[in-house]
């Protein structure tokens, strides 16, 4: 499911170029998820189908919508204004509020209506610099008609400012195909733990492959999320 080398180089180079260290305090909320204990040091993959998938991804989006810091960072990473980025989340939430989570007989004409990947970040248990940070990624897909969904979700992270390409051998991943025909499907990773550097800088990356499994050629889309933060020591 991995993206091409050229695509990743472009993605990470652009992210590194447009994100300056943020001098503010870390965000209070970890972004999501409601399904995991904030400092669960074990972490397990999560899989949701139907209405549970819609409810979970809606919580993810609402959590991001409630965090000015996350909105600002993610808007910058995508080259968008905060207002336009926020409006996109509001539109997605509006769609999900009326989405039908039906299952049933697969329809070969099914097409993706909504796909996305979101990252959650949990700060160290004992405060900045005193333990590993943690990242968790969730991929979500919704089709207009019931279909076999497959989502491969990957997350990784590390200290400092990221330059280069993603090391897919170092991370957490979860690859799940639905047993039945669904409209909504969500797959999350376990927590991936990593240190910040001496300047309290870290990065995290999440990526999902979304597939509708069909006779002949499958429909396939990719989505990704990249986070990079630096915090100065408080006086």
Please give the structural blueprint:
Layout: H1 5-18, E1 46-49, H2 50-65, H3 68-77, H4 82-98, E2 103-104, E3 112-122, E4 133-159, E5 172-177, E6 181-188, E7 192-194, E8 201-213, E9 219-230
Antiparallel strand pairs: 1-6, 2-6, 3-4, 4-5, 4-6, 4-7, 4-8, 8-9
Short account of what is shown:
This protein is an alpha+beta fold and 235 residues long.
Total strand segments:
9
- Count every helix, treating DSSP H or I runs of 4 or more residues as helices: 4
Q: What is the distance, rounded to the nearest whole angstrom, between the alpha carbons of the first and last residues?
A: 45 Å
Largest sheet: 9 strands, antiparallel
Class from helix and strand fractions = alpha+beta
Percent of residues in β-strands: 35-45%
On the 0-100 scale, what is the average pLDDT? 79
Shape: globular
Radius of gyration: 18 Å
Q: What is the element string, with H for helices and E for strands?
A: HEHHHEEEEEEEE
Helix content: 10-25%
Unreliable sequence segments: 4-41
Tag the structure with descriptive keywords.
235 residues; alpha+beta; nine-stranded antiparallel β-sheet; 9 strands; 24% helix
